[in-house]
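Figure 3 (text version): structure tokens given as input.
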């Protein structure tokens, strides 16, 4: 594979040649937002929903969207077409731009617009068969987790705590109520019902949150978003996580304790089959 090509401020350039000034507010303040879109067989999956979330994130931090929907679609198709991988994930980032360091928004500055794509390798079969180990922690992040901000320090520290413990994800609780993983949404199966955290300022509304509602409907499973206390999570029959790059994966150990019988459960099996079918249909 020849070198990755990335989009930066209007031009496609080799990754190794892409440069941004050190005064970019993304670097100085984490003042920007991002998106990650999976691509199956050359086609972006749920792009509409990702572009709407991008629009919401930009509006939340008062950056004008640099493109309309058609503009984003063209850019993304162009980027995908420059790489031969059938499955990719496209990363897009917009920051407030380059300006003298001052917390307040600078005037008359162009946002920095960056996009890249990488090969997407679906999670290994062994992960689907054995499931993941996770740890739990208090959610110490800010109160605007609904914005897909590049300021990810809280998420980074939570993920590293998991890695240090030999686990794959950190499942977080605020005041004893489930929020989400450091880079995923968490799902609790109890008595055949699929439960997830309510969509509010405490979690990122994963594109797979809406998708899971559809998949549950197709599979005839009850689906509910509501406050799920820690005790209920720990008594789950099954646990799962979802994200663009991990699709749906079963969680089979929490803080070293097996979930249910310690094996991926039947609800997971139905949902992953439905998920894979949805990616083929799209
Ligand atoms: N929550 C957080 C904190 C995340 O980083 C992600 C991954 N983007 C998700 C949830 C899942 O979102 P999605 O399904 O859109 O990948």
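Below: residues designed for each position.
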């Amino acid at each position: 594979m020849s070198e990755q090509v990335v989009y930066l401020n209007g031009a496609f350039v080799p990754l190794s040649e892409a440069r941004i000034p050190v005064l970019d507010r993304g670097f100085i303040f984490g003042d920007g937002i991002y998106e990650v879109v999976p691509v199956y067989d050359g086609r972006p999956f749920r792009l509409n929903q990702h572009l709407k979330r991008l629009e919401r994130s930009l509006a939340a931090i008062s950056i004008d969207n640099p493109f309309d929907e058609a503009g984003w679609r063209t850019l993304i198709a162009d980027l995908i077409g420059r790489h031969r991988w059938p499955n990719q994930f496209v990363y897009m980032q917009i920051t407030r731009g380059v300006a003298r360091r001052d917390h307040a928004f600078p005037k008359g500055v162009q946002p920095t617009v960056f996009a890249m794509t990488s090969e997407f390798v679906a999670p290994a079969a062994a992960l689907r068969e054995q499931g993941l180990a996770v740890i739990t922690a208090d959610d110490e992040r800010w109160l605007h987790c609904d914005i897909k901000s590049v300021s990810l320090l809280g998420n980074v520290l939570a993920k590293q705590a998991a890695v240090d413990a030999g686990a794959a994800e950190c499942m977080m609780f605020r005041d004893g109520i489930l929020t989400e993983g450091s880079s995923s949404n968490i799902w609790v199966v109890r008595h055949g019902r699929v439960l997830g955290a309510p969509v509010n300022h405490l979690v990122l509304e994963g594109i797979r949150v809406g998708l899971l509602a559809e998949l549950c409907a197709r599979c005839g499973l009850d689906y509910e978003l509501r406050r799920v206390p820690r005790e209920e999570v720990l008594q789950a029959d099954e646990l799962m996580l979802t994200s663009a790059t991990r699709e749906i994966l079963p969680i089979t150990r929490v803080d070293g304790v097996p979930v249910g019988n310690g094996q991926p459960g039947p609800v997971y099996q139905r949902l992953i089959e439905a998920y894979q079918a949805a990616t083929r249909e799209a």
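The longest strand covers residues 32-40.
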